Fold this sequence. Notes:
By secondary structure, this protein is of the alpha/beta class. It is built from five helices and eight strands, in the order βαββββαβββααα. The protein folds into two domains: 1-67, 2,3-Dihydroxybiphenyl 1,2-Dioxygenase, domain 1 (Roll), CATH 3.10.180.10; 70-158, 2,3-Dihydroxybiphenyl 1,2-Dioxygenase, domain 1 (Roll), CATH 3.10.180.10. Helix content is 32%, strand content 27%. Strand 6 and strand 7 form a beta hairpin.
Amino acid sequence: MSRVSTCLWFGKDLEEAVRFYVALVPGSSLDHLHRAPGPWPGGAAGDVLMARFTLDGQRFQALNGGKPVDYANVVSIAVMCPDQAEVDRLWSALTADGGAESRCGWLRDRWGVPWQIIPEALPRLMGQSDRAASARVFSAMQGMTRIDVAALERAAQG
Length: 158
């Protein structure tokens, strides 16, 4: 496994967020919770300070930073989904309880972490050799929040 991982900063809800993520994404695990040995700016001794977890083979770290941060959209967790059912399942779970939809398959979960929920059909349909069909698919995608595979396929057909 790679020595490189992404680290996510949470204000105080690290453990709740990580447990939610690993339950949501198949093939995931909570690998380690590190509890603070003493008081720290974000909490008390025994509170979760850091975590290591894996989402479908991709390693992450998480830090309870003590104060909330605003994630920019320059980094996101991208999930390639095999079908519309998986897009819908992840989208609904991640936007629940304070998450927010954005455009073109992007959203923010209730902790403010940006995600891209992309069906495998999108790059396949946009990458086809028929440039006019690809352009129609791209145009259709730009008008979507949650990506709709059937609408993309209709756009590809013209």
